Fold this protein.
Amino acid sequence: MSKHKQAHNTHRRLLGASPGTLTYVGRAVSFATQIKLIEYNAAEVNISQIPASQQLRDLSFDPQKMYWLNVDGIHEPEVVATVGEVFQLHPLLLEDVMNTHQKPKFEYFDTGKQLFFTFKMIEYNKQTQSLEIEHLNIILAQNCVISFQEERKRDIFEPIIARLLASAGKTRKNGADYLFYALIDLVVDHYFSILDCISEHIERLEEAIINAKEPQAMHQLYGIKREILQMKKVVFPLREMISVLLREEYPMLSDNTSLYMRDVQDHISQIIENIDSYRELVASLMDLHLSQVSNKMNNIMQFLTVISVIFMPLTFIAGIYGMNFDEMPELHWHYGYPAVWGIMLALVLGMAWLFKRKGWL
Amino acid sequence: MSKHKQAHNTHRRLLGASPGTLTYVGRAVSFATQIKLIEYNAAEVNISQIPASQQLRDLSFDPQKMYWLNVDGIHEPEVVATVGEVFQLHPLLLEDVMNTHQKPKFEYFDTGKQLFFTFKMIEYNKQTQSLEIEHLNIILAQNCVISFQEERKRDIFEPIIARLLASAGKTRKNGADYLFYALIDLVVDHYFSILDCISEHIERLEEAIINAKEPQAMHQLYGIKREILQMKKVVFPLREMISVLLREEYPMLSDNTSLYMRDVQDHISQIIENIDSYRELVASLMDLHLSQVSNKMNNIMQFLTVISVIFMPLTFIAGIYGMNFDEMPELHWHYGYPAVWGIMLALVLGMAWLFKRKGWL
Amino acid sequence: MSKHKQAHNTHRRLLGASPGTLTYVGRAVSFATQIKLIEYNAAEVNISQIPASQQLRDLSFDPQKMYWLNVDGIHEPEVVATVGEVFQLHPLLLEDVMNTHQKPKFEYFDTGKQLFFTFKMIEYNKQTQSLEIEHLNIILAQNCVISFQEERKRDIFEPIIARLLASAGKTRKNGADYLFYALIDLVVDHYFSILDCISEHIERLEEAIINAKEPQAMHQLYGIKREILQMKKVVFPLREMISVLLREEYPMLSDNTSLYMRDVQDHISQIIENIDSYRELVASLMDLHLSQVSNKMNNIMQFLTVISVIFMPLTFIAGIYGMNFDEMPELHWHYGYPAVWGIMLALVLGMAWLFKRKGWL
Amino acid sequence: MSKHKQAHNTHRRLLGASPGTLTYVGRAVSFATQIKLIEYNAAEVNISQIPASQQLRDLSFDPQKMYWLNVDGIHEPEVVATVGEVFQLHPLLLEDVMNTHQKPKFEYFDTGKQLFFTFKMIEYNKQTQSLEIEHLNIILAQNCVISFQEERKRDIFEPIIARLLASAGKTRKNGADYLFYALIDLVVDHYFSILDCISEHIERLEEAIINAKEPQAMHQLYGIKREILQMKKVVFPLREMISVLLREEYPMLSDNTSLYMRDVQDHISQIIENIDSYRELVASLMDLHLSQVSNKMNNIMQFLTVISVIFMPLTFIAGIYGMNFDEMPELHWHYGYPAVWGIMLALVLGMAWLFKRKGWL
Amino acid sequence: MSKHKQAHNTHRRLLGASPGTLTYVGRAVSFATQIKLIEYNAAEVNISQIPASQQLRDLSFDPQKMYWLNVDGIHEPEVVATVGEVFQLHPLLLEDVMNTHQKPKFEYFDTGKQLFFTFKMIEYNKQTQSLEIEHLNIILAQNCVISFQEERKRDIFEPIIARLLASAGKTRKNGADYLFYALIDLVVDHYFSILDCISEHIERLEEAIINAKEPQAMHQLYGIKREILQMKKVVFPLREMISVLLREEYPMLSDNTSLYMRDVQDHISQIIENIDSYRELVASLMDLHLSQVSNKMNNIMQFLTVISVIFMPLTFIAGIYGMNFDEMPELHWHYGYPAVWGIMLALVLGMAWLFKRKGWL
């Protein structure tokens, strides 16, 4: 709950503060930023940890190689500023990197010939049973990719590093733009697994609702709806971003990679269609659940009515012969008592027949 | 239920696996792929089974003839890869062929001058009372059509093979593009029969709901809504696909076939309109059903109220004269007992009149 | 009900049958097709019945005159085929003529310089209280209009024939294109009368619902909604059709007639706006009706509660003094019995005051 | 109610009648048409009544002056025809003038260089508590404005006549196009006052609903929704009309007046936004009201339940000791009777505590 | 409540009054207008109060400096008119400045080379718990910004004045266009804080509703919905305004400022997305709340039913043995009384078991 709340306060800096000041906006974190540099080409791969951001200034870059600088942690302004200085990144870009509330956005900076992609990783936290959203930034320059991750605990780009190390496959043979694509593709692939979680949850609920075994169905449906809204916020801007990316030609993006990007675009639109159909399913499930609640109410009322209607006349008859009038001839009949029982039995049978006909029994 | 679930996990390959690897994504199947080659022109038709995919390499193609290669089964990577090799298909195309979760898509591969259509066959399974969706792929090259089907049990293209064999009709006289059209047209025609199923189901429910004879109406309406959502997912992309196909000119597509394609487009938009109107009907039927549930509740409550209101005062009166006070003059009157009965009768008549006026009886 | 069902099965031919085969698709009918030829110009009019379609081949057409061939009945393939042959109509056009499930469509056949309009006539059947939809086809060639009607019983073009005969008015002075317009205009005018029916029905219901006198309101609202959906299906495509017609210039359509066509377009958009506003009204009426059902329930419950709350304590008191304890001093008081009556009266008055304050009485 | 009904029958002429016949379509009226001619320029103003339409033929127009012909009453075909003749108006234009069901429309007649604006005046009738819609037509020719009003009772253009007479202000200094603008502006200004009425009504209802003091809330909300639908029908086409008017250049419309027209357009879009937000408010109020009805039901049920649950056990206990068994030891105990009262008191207290905990008391 | 009402009456002037008259439209206020002139460049800043608007005429402007004239109070026509005269503002612009009901609008006045931005400040009033909307106007001329604020109490531009005074930062180094941007940016930043308020409110409600602790949930949800509607009205037009501003090139707007404006546009679209997702959340919360009200009703009914069903048969049995028949053998049995208690106990246990199975206990 508190996460949602936090998601909006202080959207990028203090009210009235001058634009362009580098400030971290997001959850309070305290770990030290970790910088990793991967240098590769088809022939070799080399990974090095960079202990302090100051050492970045000493690096020299070989135009024959590809470079991938991965920064885990965006909360230290001096680190981000140093990276920005070394790679000549625009101040507005750095501001977006450090603002975890920035919505997904694509920008091209003409001066540095840089493509800037800021978007979100989603992960399902099984413990809190909620979606966790992580702020991601990827910058593509000529032979170099820079990625900024919010968290250090899980390195979501691990599989790609493994692929780079494993063999001289596509990723190593192609340029930095292919790596750029591979990173985006990985994140979009992750979205599918979130969809799977949501889909499974919907199905479990569906079964529970159909069997009327889930008293908290509305809460859960509401929870799914919130997750869908969260995903929508993350995924919808991506569609636009990639179509803008593909609409124009950029020097650092090869035709081949554009083809692969089109594939990513395809997947995003598939995700969006699924999101839409899940929304409709959830709405239908709500209707189904509410109709079942109504049905249950009907059954309760019906039961109460059957019982009341049977016992009220019987109790009335018993009351009649409990009266103390001096002259009540029935009381002195020899078969009076069994006769009353007979009448009562007849009444019960009559009403049972009536309820049968009404379909209440 | 389990089908729906399966429809989303592992959307095309393992998370983080390198793109472009040929992997079958779909239901587990075990039959052997079956390959059929139909060679035809206006003069003659020749059908041959190809027992092993390796034999495809030995085939030679006569440019004066049309060829239709139909592959039943897309789960064996080596078969798909061999077909791809022989006909020079793009790796991304083959990946889509083997991915049963791929959403409908049209692509033109400029290098091979191939049109690629991937879409879905829908069939209504009467036993499970659910829609079954089959992944279909059709590729059109110069004088050759290649079709991939997911299942082997039912050959949905049977009627077209029969037509080819039967007589030297339109299909045989025209080029491969006409065959390409005929296959798509057949699948779209199948959609109409699914619409008929849905329409019939809606009507049956409509009658049942109007006569208030279907206690499970909501479940069934929910089921129809799910089917409509499934159809929408299959049919909506087709509209766009065919309009993209018709927007540009392709060397292997004759003007005449384009005219027929426009006819298919027309049918698809008719299907989409029907889907939309079914959705509205289902929503209205839900309202109608819920209003009937409310009405039933009202009737039950009314009945309970009538009975309670009649017997409560009577029982009260009987209770009064069951009291044991020493001095209750009514008890000793000669006509006390009949008088009480009289009062009670008057009360019942009065209340009956009241309920009559309220319209409750 | 059965009409709706029929509206979808076998949308144009048998599944898998070769496209282009002339088959009648629609309700089973058995009357003989009737063909009427009207030959006119400003100076004279001449109507002749053509008993057998074969005689059409013997006709010769004078380019100085206008011809209107009206065919009542589209179920005989040989008749339709003969007309198609004589006037050189495209096979796809003839297929659409014979398919009563074809949705409204406009097409221009460049080879024959023919405009083809297929659309629907709607009539309100007062007996079955449902809309009846008839398939109509109008073809405009140079100096000639061909119209196909599904039914023979009612000739909806009667008023235009009467106008042609009556005087040398606009219709006779202008070319065949004006007649083409006049036929379409007549059908669109009919739509307004259907709107009137629906509007009247809505108003009657509105009054009944406001006065809470219509227990079957939901059924009727559902019926209206279905009628609105049917009209929508018929009218919506027309808007697009006429705007396509007006977007380009056709040799057989004069500027003057285009101006009149624009008037028709105007009316269609007025009809569509009305349809939309009726849909909203119907939705609001449903809300109103459901709220009244709720109110009625509230009233019933309130009544039951008032009665129960009044009689339960009274019955309890009566029960107390019906107990048989040896020592119950009240029973032996001289004014015990009247005192109990007094207490009961006080209770009733107290509760009446309470209910008054709560606004329940 | 009857007004709404009337609004649709016979939309412009008898079914099947020839187009272009001048017929009045609308409410039956019987007053005589009144024609007023205002002749003005910056220097002088001159108002004259024209008793019979025939006298219009005798008028001569000075190109140095502006003319405003205002016709009150559109039900006399001969008057409208005479005006049309004198000012050379197109027959289709005259047909629209006389058809009160014509939806708002803008047209430019190239032959006569006339701008034709047909739209609606709305007035709130406090007596019937409903909106009254009046058909208005304004034609702008070179130095001349012709206006047709449906009603004679209220002259809505009174303030403008007063302004013309009062001083040589903007209206008199500018051309006829400025007068044309001023008339439209006045009508749009009137719409704002209708919005005020609706807004006030919504607020009154809002307060009543929040305080749960309006049992007829649904009826009133339904009434407002109808009014909003009516306004929408009148105002929505205006937006399009004025944007079409401004898109092209017309000889009789000065740049200055176009600027003012843009202002009117601005107001119309403000009205449309308000209409939309009122619709949402009304929908929310319905939800609020229905939730209150539910709450009331809950309270009633709760009250009934509390009373039943308290008295049922008490009555049962009293019933036990009213039994006539020979051996019921409690009956002979000395403190039996007070003990029963004690048990009953304990029961009541216990249940009161239970209901307190459940929050029902 | 009364604020909403006031928001619509007399939208800009008296009905029928001549357009272009300067009249204040808004809440009645009585303070004196306050005028402040800030003169600055990178080197120095100078703030001066201008006690009477007449003194504005005596000012001389140095083209090497930037000027910011801030007017607090728009209710005095003579002040606004004087400012308009001195800075040569268009009369229509001044009319919009004085009309607090004017919806947000952007205009470019070609004659004076002025950009005119009229929009709204929103502030959350914690006391009345409602949004307060203030009318703002900003005009950008060559080296000069003029701002008009509705209120004098709070000066919302205070932080920017402070920044100007504090140091020779960006705002002072850049031209008047940057100041223009900074003012707009500040207002948009304020919107985020309103979003935070709404978001917090939604979350508090969410928690209360999930725990079923908020009986007034519907009122509060309705209140939030109204606030969202108000924000929408204020923010939606801004998106269009800024995109119009950025679409064309204006002489007084530097490329650098355009880049910053694009950033503002980005924020506005983020706000709009949030507004949309809040609307959906509120709708879902309503559903959740209504379902809980239903559940509560079900529980109450269930409880009533359980109690009634238990006590009705017991009371009936007690009634039986309270009858006074002469011959009722059970009454004389030695263990008659304990047997009755036994039967009753058995009944209660039986029913308890039944309710257990039904899941009602």
